[in-house]
Each structure stands twice: as C-alpha cells, then as structure tokens.
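Retro notes, item 3 of 5
We never archived the inputs for the iron/sulfur cluster complex last cycle. Fixing that now. Sequence and ligand:
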Amino acid sequence: MADIASNSPSAAPPRRKTGRHRGEGQWAVGHFTPLNGNEQVKKDDDGLNVRTRIETIYSKAGFHSIDPSDLRGRMRWWGLYTQRKPGIDGGKTAVLEPEELDDEFFMLRVRIDGGRLTTAQLRVVGEVSQEFARGTADITDRQNIQYHWIRIEDVPEIWRRLEAVGLSTTEACGDTPRVILGSPVAGIAEDEIVDGTPAIEEIQRRFIGNKDFSNLPRKFKSAVSGSPLLDVAHEINDVAFVGVHHPEHGPGFDLWVGGGLSTNPRIGVRLGAWVPLEDVADVYGGVIGIFRDYGYRRLRNRARLKFLVADWGPERFRRVLEDEYLRRPLLDGPAPEQPVERWRDHVGVHRQKDGRFYVGFAPRVGRVDGATLTKIAELAGEHGSGRLRTTAEQKMIVLDVPGERVDSLVAGLEALDLRVSPSPFRRGTMACTGIEFCKLAIVETKARGSWVIDELERRLPEFDEPVTINVNGCPNACARIQVADIGLKGQLVLDDDGRQVEGFQVHLGGALGLEAGFGRKVRGLKVTADRLPDYIERVLTRYSEQREDGERFAA
Ligand code: SF4
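Structure as it came back at the time:
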C-alpha cells in the first residue's frame, strides 16, 4: 500500500518539486495556502465534521441556524445540497446570488456502492421517501438514489434509519471519494470476467469517511467492473478498473485514469497496467493519493484529475503511481475487448451462472417514487432471493429469480409501469434533475424526457435500434450529454417570434465503449423544447432511411 499522508497539508509528504505547476495550488509542491474560498472552507474544518453540528445544532434550531460555509460547502460531505426555490425560471439562474436560489429544503443523496441493495434496504429507502421526502426518489446515472424536499430537522432520523440497514450518505457529494460504481451483475453474470465486489468493499472500508482522503481538490469518481459489457461508464471516471483476461496471469483489471465530462470533457486514458483483484484497493489508494497531493487546487474548473492526467500523460502518471505511491512496478496488461452488445444496462430477462435469472427493468428517466420502490422491494422479496441492483443507466435489476417465477415478476413490474421489454426510447433516454430542483438548471428535464419517450413511441413504433438520448438542464454533464447519440444541453433559445424560451443545443454522435468519443456540437442547431420530439423524429427517420448495414447511429 502506498505511503499515504494524512489530510493535513502540513503532513503531506515531501514531493519532487516540478516548479511548473507551483501556481496551481498543489500540496505536493508546497502550496499549502488556500488559493480560493472553497479551499479555505475545507482547510478551516473538515467537511466530515459538519455531521456533529447537524445532529446537535442545525436539526434542532432549524434551517436559519446553519452557518453559510456549512450550508453551501460542508453539508455536501454528507450528501446534502440545498434545492432550488420553486418558481424561479431558468433566465434567473445566472443572474441571482446563490442564496436567492436556495430553498429551505435539501436534496439528499444515498450512496449505493456497486449498486447493491437488499429488499430490506430498498424498503427503508421507500419508507424514508414517503415519510420525509414527499415521495420523491430518483435513480441516478451513478447508481445512487436521490431524495428531495428534505428538512434539516429530519436528517438525523433519516441517517438513523438508513444506517440501521447498512446504507449511508457519507461523502455522497463534496470534494470526496464519491460512490464506487460497480457492475450491477457482479457475481451472477454468466459472461463475467471477474467479480469486483471484494475490491469495492475493501475500498469502502479503507477510503470512505476517512479523513486522510476527505479534502480532495474536487470530486473523485471511480468504477470497478468485471463485465465484458463495460457497464459502468469507465471512460468518464477519475479512476476505473475494467475486467480483462491477462494471457499469463488470468482475470484481473485494466487501469484507466483521468476521465470526466462537464464543461471540459475528457475520455479516460489507459495506463497499460494489469491489476489483480487483491491489488485494486491499493491502486485506488495510490491514484486518489496522487489526486490529493498533486491535484490542482487554484481554480475549481481545473481541479478534476483529468487536467493533471492531460498535463502529465499516462507514462508519467504511471511512473509516479509506481515509484511514489505503490513502491513497486505494475504488470503490463491488455486492453478490454469491444463488447458484443451496444446496450449496457442489463434490461430484460437474463440467465445467471447459477441457472436462475436476473430481470432488469426501465423506469422513465430514472424517476420512481417511494411507494413504487416499496412495491419493487415486495416483488423482489416474493420472486427472488431479496437482492437488487441499480445501474449506471438509471435502471434497476432484480436478482436470483427462479425460472418458473420470471413471468409473474415481469407482470408485476409492468403493472407498475416498469418495463422489462421497453422501447429503445424508454431504454435509452436519461435525464438529469433539471430546473425542478437544481439551482444550476436553465430548463426542465425529467418531465420533458418522459414526454419525449411517449411521443417517440407513438410516432416511431417500428424503430428498434439502440439509441441514447440524454437530456441535460444546463451546460454541465450530469446526464452525460457528450457521450450520447443525441445529447441535449439545456439553454434558453429564441423561438420563431424572437422570444426567449426553454430549448436545447444539440450534440450528435457521441458514444461510450471502445468507440468512445464526444458528440459533435451541431453548429447553430438549437431546438426549442416544444419541438424536441419533431426534431428527434426527423433525425431518427433520416438515419433509418439512409443507414447502411452495420452502421450505427454515431457513424
Ligand atoms: Fe443540474 Fe445542470 Fe447537473 Fe442537470 S446537468 S443536474 S441542471 S447541474
């Protein structure tokens, strides 16, 4: 394991002085004086410490007792963000002060590492939603579940209930090691290369809620999957471990670093290194250590690991990882193979390696509610062994269903409008939170995504190609617009009468997988929200008419 220093800048290990990036606020080159307000807040008090104040002061004295640097800073370390005040339109997003957009209610994110849930856990998630969150519960594209309308007074009781069943909101947001994505079919899929679950558990045990790693330059996203379907969007994580067969050493993981989307998107790079299952947590520790020590802290829009990786290149990054953190060389290894399927969401009925089945189903754009989650838990309990998974595509899976129980489960799910054989539009459309709750949003996304699905199902009933349609409420990339076939970036646009209305900048032809790349921004192509189905129908009809054999949408 790497020689990891403590969280205190003064205790950071002495590092090579590169000089070149001294101005970027890197601890490793001696930059311990905070260069911006965010860094100052983190230096003043560790984000994890806010929990005590929430439990002993804020939940008792109410919203207005919350210190502003906790409200807009440290609360995130426990998964809490203020949500957008209702009724403020997208035109005001950029011109109002943050406090003018703040509601007195919170979004609360529950981290679900590896997407692993039991029926007992899901039942509690559903109960909390109904009792404390006005029934809200969204499945995110990072396998989490998000509540809205949370009152600060209720947070300690919500934690008590979640933690009693082994769930938590620890470091679900903030400049921290966020949820660890994992293959939703880890341990059960017939075609699995390696089960990454023990590595995810070891990373959780060693790094989550650990104050040595709770002050990172920015968020740190990770993924571990041994599925040949490449089902965790590994290309856009800060560190990712992707299942491969080493010709001499057998199953293990190919190491990727430096991916991330947002306003400066980058696909991660391979370090050419093969990591056995038992070394994954050590290597994770080395990469997060590099990020903490060498990551840029001066400007928040240059603070993700991808900027350091871009400046160093993969060779230097691997050398520093091996020499300074692992203190041993890594083995060279092969790249992952191209998946045979384009869908990576595990929707449908599939045989497990033990002969039982897993059943993946599609809500609409990740939106469910507490009552539905409770019913899903009941169905899973009646039909499976009690295990479920969330996916990185805003879907869910019930595991361990005996063959003779599959039809009954499918009927029960479909009765809840949870499709096991969805249209490509239901299956391929994702939407971020949008203006309903997000303070950065410019346009509405969830209801609009659902409407687009309905319209396309009605207009193009014969269309049966995989297609991804990702709807974002602002220029950030929470719904991964740059890697969608049709990526829609929310902004205000002019309608035919010259009025400013909600609309989208269109990006076409992005992809994940080994053909990963960013969609092209179609110059000048902006669509008003009310014409979205017309536009997508035109694009897909033209594609259907003109495509050649084997050509996929992005070609
Ligand atoms: Fe909010 Fe923008 Fe992220 Fe959507 S993409 S959730 S609008 S920050």
